[in-house]
Amino acid sequence: MNQIVKRDQLIKEWIYVAADISRTSFEQTINIEEKTNRTDLVTSIDKEIEQYFIEKIATHFPNERVLGEEGSGHQITDLKGVVWIIDPIDGTLNFVKQKNDFAIMISVYENGIGYLGYIYDVMKDELYSAVKNQGACLNEIPLKKVKDIPLREGLVAVSHRLMSSEKNDEARKIGRASSGVRMVGSAGLETARVATGRLVAYIGASLAPWDIGAGKVISEELGLIYTQLNGEKIDMLHYNKTIVATPSAHKEIIEKFKLDKEG
Q1: Given CA atoms 214, 215, 220, 221 in this order, what sign does their dihedral have?
Q2: Angle at the Cα of 190 (from 65 to 117), degrees rounded to 5?
Q3: Fewer CB within 10 A of the end CB, N or C, for the chain?
Q4: What does the alpha-carbon distance between residue 183 and residue 159 come to, in Å, rounded to a whole number?
């Protein structure tokens, strides 16, 4: 069996098992901890799902490394070889507070290039997936390339941290230049909304590799641009201010932020 096909099948099987773990937890008492502040949470379910993925990867692909949000993978300082990037629950605050609008995300990178990406909206049973140079799908149905809609004609998602900051007004200016602002609270699901044309852009204040990995593969297969907010390439080993958008909206937003920085 082709390695790509084998990985794709296994990943989908694992994601559905992990989703069952997350849904079943609603009937249990789960442990919740703060990581950096009261809105940055980790639960025992995040850790359980990440460990499940790590064990599966170690069984089937023992020589490959894992970069996981909860730190139970390898210590990654480079992207040489094959690296799995895992976010066991993207939108943990939503998972805890709403039991909705959270995702499971997995991506596979080789020598820094993303080849496989998966975002699973657990409560909507929507699996976004992509294989490099083979397009992207939603629940196995191919997605069309996203229309190149300009900023003023579309909705945008902007992270809460950027929108609520008192120190700058760039994000609010972007919001005013668009048709409106919508926020979900999950980098993966907001990226998925751009990938399906429901938003023209998503701007993240500080996204980690596990927030970015899967969405970047899917977005780029659909003709979207995914970069740092200054227009530079994403650094897959560090946190990034990010933007994923249609080409037209991307250009306009980058220019607006650049003008504000220079002004």
Answers
A1: positive
A2: 30
A3: C
A4: 7
* Pair 184, 258 in one domain: yes
Instruction: Judge if 123 and 174 occupy the same domain.
Output: no
Q: What's the whole-number mean pLDDT along residues 83-87?
A: 96
Assess whether pLDDT exceeds 50 at residue 263. Answer: no
Same domain, 171 and 75: no
User: Order of strands across the sheet with 103-110?
Assistant: 65-68, 82-90, 103-110, 113-121, 126-131, 136-138, 141-142
CATH code of the domain covering residue 239 = 3.40.190.80
Mark whether 195 and 222 lie in a shared domain: yes
Q: How far is CA 96 from CA 26, 78, 192, in A?
A: 9, 33, 21
23 & 133 share domain: yes
Question: pLDDT for 132-152, tens place per residue?
Answer: 999 999 999 999 999 999 999
One domain, residues 16 and 132: yes
Report CA dihedral (79, 118, 92, 77) to the nearest 10 degrees: 0
For residue 174, give every residue at least 6 positions away whose Cβ sits within 8 Å of its Cβ, in sequence order, or none.
Answer: 151, 156, 158, 201, 203, 253, 256, 257
What CATH number has the domain bearing residue 67? 3.30.540.10
- 200, 151 Cβ separation under 8 angstroms: yes
63 burial type by CB count under 10 A (0-12 exposed, 13-18 middle, 19+ buried) = exposed
Percent of the chain at pLDDT above 70? 91
Short-list 262, 223, 230, 226, CA closest to 244: 226
Domain of residue 72: give its range.
3-142
What is the per-residue pLDDT across 10-22, written as a single tens digit (0 to 9) for each?
A: 999 999 999 999 9
| Structure-token pair, residue 230 | 């200054």
